[in-house]
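Possible regression after last week's pipeline update?

I re-ran a chain I had predicted before the update to compare outputs. Posting the input and the new output here so someone can diff against the archived version. Not blocking, just want to make sure nothing changed silently.
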Amino acid sequence: MATASQTVRVTADLTMQVPRNATGDLAQGVTNVVRGVDAVARVDEVDVTNLQPRLNDLRVDATVAVEMTVEDAPDAERAGTTALSDGFGIETVENVESDRAAADSPERVQEYG
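New output (post-update):
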C-alpha cells in the first residue's frame, strides 16, 4: 500500500557529532550532517548554540531549519523527529516545530478569483 508524503519546513534543536576534519566552517559541518538525513531536501538555517570539542569530533548543539519530506500524518512534528533521529551523527532531536505552509512545493495550486 502506497503512503502519501508531504513537504514541511521543520525547525528543531539538535545535538550531533560533527567530524573534526569536515570541510568549511562549523555551520557547514552541521549542514553536512543534517543533509545526510534521507528526508531532508534543504537546510535553510543553522544556529550553533553550543560546542564541545572531543577527541575525534565536535559535539554541537544547534537549531536548524530544514525543508523535508515526511509521511502524510496528522502529526508532522513527530514524523520530522523520527526522520531526523535516524540521521547518522545526530544524538538528540528536541523542540520540533513544523510549518506546512512555509515549505515551497514545486507543485503549487493555481488560484483563480
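Follow-up from reviewer: compared with the archived run. The longest strand covers residues 5-19. Marking as no regression found.
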